[in-house]
Design brief:
Layout: E1 8-9, E2 25-26, H1 28-44, H2 49-67, E3 74-77, H3 80-89, E4 99-103, H4 108-116, E5 123-127, H5 134-140, E6 145-151, H6 163-172, E7 176-180, H7 192-195, E8 199-202, E9 215-219, H8 221-226, H9 265-280, H10 282-300, E10 315-319, H11 322-330, E11 336-338, E12 341-345, H12 352-363
Parallel strand pairs: 4-5, 4-6, 6-7, 7-8
Antiparallel strand pairs: 1-2, 3-9, 8-9, 10-12, 11-12
Helix pairs in contact: 1-9, 2-9, 3-4, 10-12
Organism: Edaphosphingomonas laterariae
InterPro entries: Aminotrans_V_dom, PyrdxlP-dep_Trfase, PyrdxlP-dep_Trfase_major, PyrdxlP-dep_Trfase_small
Keywords: Pyridoxal phosphate
């Protein structure tokens, strides 16, 4: 076991190749949960709120350190769909600008959240074609589009979208751009301000190994300044502890998207995970992932997938029948399936022996 792998608790059995779904538990998470949530609760009761809100600030700070921008531009969310709904429903209405665009290969929950906004007068358009080609988006982005929501990495194919170019196209058309980084954060380098997007949504459960429930949004300050969320609560207030029911004022930063009484534990756990991944380095996680994929490719050639994975995320998405799935599972591999596609991911805690096992199984079929 490598030093990096020793930082995680891995499920028993064969190779755990499901980081695209749920990353392994960092060993530091248990102590972080106790120190940030349980110990203050046990010793201070109601007075633990100071510690708990400090844990949220820590979470926002490590997100900023990982993806750029200011801590003030990040806001915790229960999940991606909630964050997306809060962002889109906060846009000032513009006559003649009512189209919401997303790829038809987006994660379904994203489409569901966008479709519900038709009740506010929007129209959802799902863009067909290759989401990794700027031509696909350029044909769809036009006057009348209010927002473009693009996945950085697509969960069923691993395809990476050209986010910077999409953001530029959206800006030229007068639309805002939002990127979903759920399948890329922790495995690919991300620079949210550098991309030129207006906002981003993400979670920590996959490559960041942060567990469920720690969603978040990032909003460029220019967008935040004009956004007026309709789903608010006392933590959306500029002064949550003012307790004046007749006086609501939006928080001056991304916290205006927060809502009511927040959860704390998911963000404390996720903070430990982000610190762990940050200590290893996303660049090293990616390089390790590419080394293991190349090792599989050495055994299989291009029979199962294109060996050059530089234009893809971290997940091997293999079009394969049940015989291939059965062979991999019989060998102990923890994988999953989405329709005709088998998905398997190599993280920092996977090793050469596991990659060799996958390559051996695929080469023998």
């Amino acid at each position: 076991m490598t030093a990096a792998a020793a930082l995680f608790e891995l499920p028993e059995g064969g190779p755990y190749l499901l980081s695209h779904s749920v990353g392994a538990l960092p060993r530091a998470a248990r102590a972080r949960l106790a120190a940030a949530v349980l110990d203050p609760w046990a010793t201070k009761g109601s007075d633990a709120w100071g510690d708990w809100l400090g844990a949220i600030d820590d979470f926002r700070a490590v997100l900023a350190g990982l993806m750029g921008g200011r801590m003030a531009d990040y806001c915790p969310q229960p999940n991606l769909s909630a964050g997306l709904f809060r962002l889109l429903s906060a846009l000032p209405p513009e006559p003649g600008r009512d189209i919401l665009l997303a790829s038809d290969q987006s994660f379904p929950s994203i489409g569901f959240a966008m479709g519900a906004l038709e009740r506010l007068g929007y129209r959802l358009e799902l863009v067909p074609g290759d989401p990794g080609a700027i031509a696909t988006w350029a044909q769809a982005i036009r006057p009348g589009v209010a927002a473009v929501v693009a996945m950085h990495v697509h969960s069923n194919s691993g395809v990476v979208a050209p986010i910077g170019e999409i953001a530029a196209q959206a800006k030229a058309a007068g639309a805002i751009s939002i990127v979903d980084v759920a399948q890329s954060v922790g495995i690919l380098p991300i620079d949210l301000p550098g991309w030129g997007v207006d906002a981003a949504i993400g979670s920590c459960v996959k490559w960041l190994c942060g567990g469920p429930g720690a969603g978040w949004l990032w909003a460029d300050p220019a967008l935040t300044e004009r956004a007026e969320p309709i789903e608010v609560g006392w933590f959306s207030h500029a002064d949550p502890f003012a307790f004046d029911i007749r006086d609501f004022r939006y928080a001056p930063d991304a916290r205006r998207f927060w809502g009511a009484t927040p959860s704390i534990a998911p963000y404390a756990l996720a903070t430990a995970a982000i610190v762990t991944i940050g200590g290893i380095g996303v660049s090293e996680v990616l390089a390790h992932n590419r080394r293991l994929i190349a090792q599989v490719a050495d055994r299989t050639g291009d029979r199962w997938f294109a060996p050059d994975r530089t234009g893809f995320g971290g997940t091997l998405c293999i079009a394969a029948d049940e015989a291939v799935e059965t062979a991999l599972r019989t060998a102990g591999c923890r994988i999953d399936r989405r329709g005709p596609v088998l998905r398997l991911s190599f993280h920092i805690y996977n090793d050469e022996a596991e990659a060799d096992l996958v390559g051996q199984v695929l080469a023998g079929l």
